[in-house]
Amino acid sequence: MMSRKKTLLLGTIILTGTGFLTRIIGFFYRIFLSHTIGATGMGIYQLLSPVSFLCAAICIGGFQTIMSRTIAAKNAVGSKKGGFDVLFVGTGFCVCLSVLAACLIRIFSNFIAIHILGEPETARMLDILALSVPVSTIHTCIISYYYARKKTGIPSASQLLEQLIRVLSSYLVYQIMISRGIKPDAIMTVIGLLAGEAGASLFTLIAIAWECSKYNYHFHLSEAEKNFKELFTLSYPLTANRICITLLHSVEAVLIPSRLRLCGLSNNQALATYGIITGMALPMVLFPSALTSSVAVMLLPSVAEDQAAGNDENVKKTIEVTIKYCLILGIFAVGVFCAYGNAIGTLLFQNEEAGKYLQILGFISPFLYLNSTLTSILNGLGKTRLCFYQNIAGLSIRILFVLFAIPSFGVKGYLWGLLFSELVSSVLNVIFLKKSARFSFNAMQCILKPSGLLMIALGVSFFADAILGRFMAGNSILNLILVILVMGSSYLSFYLPTIRRLKA
C-alpha cells in the first residue's frame, strides 16, 4: 500500500501535469480566438459565465464538496459500497436539477440575453449552453468520487480530453464557417464547450461503469433515502452559500461592461476591454495556479480524514506548508508578470492592453494562489460558513469598486478592486484558520526570503536578457522563454533542499 503522503504527492503531480498541459492547450486556443473572433467576441463569450456559474451553483453547488467529503469518510472505514451509494444518489439529484435549469434557460434565453446580460447576441449562445448543463453536471459529480478516493488518473484524463475536444470542435466549426463565407463569431466557442463537456461526460460514465463492475456493485433503493437525507442536510447550507456568492459574481460580471461605458467607452470597446481582462490577462495570471488548484483538490479529502482521525498536528503542518509554498510561487509570479507582462501579452495575444493589464494583475498572484488552497482546507475542516464570510467580503469589495471606481478611474479601478479584495480574502482565511488550528507563520521564510531571492533572480534574468538579446534579436518569443527559464531556475535552486526534505 502506498503511504498517505506519497498518495497525496502523486495525485498532486498527476493533476498538476495535466493542469499545465490543458492550460497550455487553452492558451493556444485563446490566442486562436483572439485572432479569429477578437477581443469583442471574447467579451461576448465571457458574458455567458454568470449563467453557467449560477447553473453550476444551483445544480451541483455544495453537493460536490459534501459528496467528496462523505465518500472520503466512507472510504476511510473501508465502505466502498457506501461511497458508490453516495455518488449515485447525489448525481441523480443533481442531474434532475440540471435538466430543469437547462429547460428554463432555453425558454427564457431571449429575456436573459436582453434584460440581464444586456447583449442580444448571447441569446442563441444560451440555447446551446443550456444543453451543456446536464452533461457538465454528470462529469463533475463523477470526478468528485475519484478525487475523494485520491484517484486522479480519470479526472486528469477527462480534463485533458475535454480540452482537446473543445479546441478541435471549435476549430472545425471555424473551418465550416469560413468555407460557407460566414464571419466567425463567439458561437463557435459555445459549440466547442458543449462538445468538450459531452466527451468528458461520456468518458467518465464509462470509467465509473467499469469501476462498479470491478467491485460487483448494485444500487439499492433502500439506501437511497438515508443517503439523500445525509447529503442534503450537509450540503444545503453550502449550496445556499454558493448560490449567494455566484449571484454576486454574476452581478459583478454584468455590471463591468455597463460601468465601462459610463467612463466614455463605446459598447464594443467595453466588451473588448472586458474580453481582454477576463479572456486574456486573468487566465495568464491563473496559469501557475495549476499547481495550487491541484493541491487544493487533494487537500480537501485529506484534511477531512485528518480531522476525523483527530490528527491535529497533520492539519497544522498542512496549513504551514501550504501558506509557505503558495506565497513562494505567488511572489515568483509577481516578478515574472511585472517584469515581462507587457512582453507576454503583446507576443501571445498581439495586444498591448493585455500586457498592461497583466502587469497590474500580477500583484494579485500570491493572494489568488493562497486563497484557493486555504479555502479548500477550511472546507475540509467543515468551516463552510467561514468560507462564505470571506467570499462575501471579497466580492462585496469588488462590486463596490466596479460601481464607484470604474466610472472615475476606468478599468484600472476594477483592477485595484481585484487586488484589494484578494488581499482581504487572504487575511480573513489566515485569521479563520488560526482560530481553527494553531499553526505558526514565519514571515522570513514565507515573504522576506522569497522576495529577496526574487530580486536576485530578476537580476540574473535581466543579465541573461541582455546577453541573449544580442544573439536572438530576431526571435523575441524564444528569447522571452529562455529568460523566464533562467529566472525560474535561479529562483528554484534556492529551494531544492527544502523540497527534497518535504518529499522525504
Protein model, in words:
This protein has 504 residues and is an all-alpha fold. The protein has two domains: 49-250, no CATH class; 265-441, no CATH class. The protein is built from 21 helices and no strands. It has helices at residues 4-36, 38-46, 49-59, 61-76, 80-107, 109-116, 122-148, 153-179, 187-214, 224-262, 267-286, 289-309, 312-349, 352-361, 365-380, 384-404, 406-409, 411-436, 443-471, 476-493, 496-503. Helix 19 (443-471) runs antiparallel to helix 20 (476-493). The longest helix is centred in the middle third of the chain and has 39 residues, at 224-262. The protein is globular and about 60 Å long. It starts with a helix and ends with a helix. It comes from Blautia liquoris. Keywords: Cell membrane, Membrane, Transmembrane, Transmembrane helix.
